[in-house]
Automatic annotation (TrEMBL):
InterPro entries: B30.2/SPRY (IPR001870), B30.2/SPRY_sf (IPR043136), Butyrophylin_SPRY (IPR003879), ConA-like_dom_sf (IPR013320), E3_ligase_FN3/SPRY (IPR050617), FN3_dom (IPR003961), FN3_sf (IPR036116), Ig-like_fold (IPR013783)
Cited Gene3D superfamilies: 2.60.120.920, Immunoglobulins (2.60.40.10)
Residue ranges of every copy of the Fibronectin type-III domain listed in the record: 45-142
Keywords: Coiled coil
Family matches, as PANTHER family: E3 UBIQUITIN-PROTEIN LIGASE TRIM36-RELATED, FIBRONECTIN TYPE III AND SPRY DOMAIN-CONTAINING PROTEIN 2
CDD domains, A to Z: FN3
Name this polypeptide is given: Fibronectin type III and SPRY domain containing 2
Pfam families named among the record's database cross-references: fn3, SPRY
Top-level taxonomic group: Eukaryota
């Protein structure tokens, strides 16, 4: 209930966001109170969405942005806004908008080698909300997070995504660590074109690194089926053995110099997945495959050890020749 007002307008404060109200007016004089005016419906604007940064990914040509509504009641749509940032951190005065986004995610086409500030607004009949807290996206290379819900139960990943705990031992690493036959997937890479990342390994670690479709059987070894491809390192008494597995089969290859940093180059359009010894700029193997779906980067260990993944980096020229 409001106090008496002598003006021809008033401000109604403390309304809930994204809520509908009925408003009407009565006039009062010494004789009494008039009948109510015709009721007007008013919808307040929504609360700003919340971008889920750990579920966002990017590549040189695009970024996939995901967010939560931030509203109890449904909203009509969303608006994604982006501004390019200069090398000195200054923001462009030009804001590009993508309107009428129906769901809580949006794939945005971007320019390679740029840096963007991206925010989201929720929209209803009352208008757009304030901007969400922005996130910064760089399109230097393909960037993805690890999906904690796909990790082996022995593996726990800290909130910042850069430190992994196994038992009581804390291991600071640049991106991830896997221990004792555990595996984890990276974000799905849902953008056509070229993608590249690198993995640091060591001679004492048996590992599998590669890609897999989203519907790949989780209890199957990477490379053992028709829905995954991988490079595998096996320790034997006499030598280090490397396999390039798809559907359980590998060509007979001999690698004479053990790689310590492996480049992985995925090209959806050409249908290739290639592996390189980064330090030697040496091509190791290429799978030729017609990808029917998008894939997840995959990382697995067959014995105690560690892997370190580097993404968001520019692909070397030799990776896509």
């Amino acid at each position: 209930m409001m106090d008496s007002i002598n003006e021809t307008h008033c401000t109604v404060a403390d309304l809930l966001p994204n809520a509908q109200y009925e408003l009407w007016v009565t006039a009062t004089n010494t004789t009494g109170i008039s009948p109510a005016s015709e009721k007007a419906l008013y919808m307040t604007v929504p609360s700003p969405p919340v971008i889920k940064q750990r579920e966002c990914s990017s590549c040189p040509e695009a970024a996939l942005i995901r967010w939560e509504s931030g509203n109890t009641n449904p909203v009509d749509s969303y608006m994604v806004e982006l501004r390019e940032m200069g090398a000195d951190g200054t923001e462009s005065n030009i804001t590009e908008s993508i309107v009428a986004v129906p769901t809580c995610q949006c794939l945005i086409q971007l320019q390679p080698g740029r840096r963007y500030l991206i925010s989201v607004r929720a929209v209803n009949i009352g208008g757009p909300s304030d901007r969400s807290e922005p996130i910064t996206i760089t399109t230097t290379g393909t960037f993805f997070y690890l999906l904690e819900d796909t990790a082996h139960p022995c593996l726990s990943i800290s909130e910042d995504g850069f430190t992994v705990f196994y038992g009581d031992e804390e291991l600071p690493i640049s991106a991830m660590c896997l221990y004792r036959c555990v595996a984890v997937l990276g974000d799905l890479i849902p953008v056509r074109g070229r993608h590249y990342w690198e993995v640091e390994v060591d001679d004492g670690t048996e590992f599998r690194i590669g890609v897999a479709y989203e519907d790949t059987e989780r209890n199957s070894y990477l490379g053992a089926n028709s829905t995954s491809w991988c490079m595998r390192h096996i320790l034997s008494p006499s030598r280090h053995k490397y396999e390039f597995l798809h559907n359980g089969w590998s060509p007979d290859l001999r690698i004479t110099v053990n790689p310590v940093r492996i480049g992985v180059a995925l090209d959806y359009d050409r249908g290739t997945l290639s592996f390189f010894n980064v330090n030697l700029e040496q091509h190791l193997h290429t799978f030729h495959c017609h990808f029917r779906n998008y894939v997840h980067p995959c990382f697995s260990l067959d014995n105690p050890g560690a892997l370190t993944v580097h993404n968001g980096i520019e692909a070397p020229e030799y990776a896509f020749i």
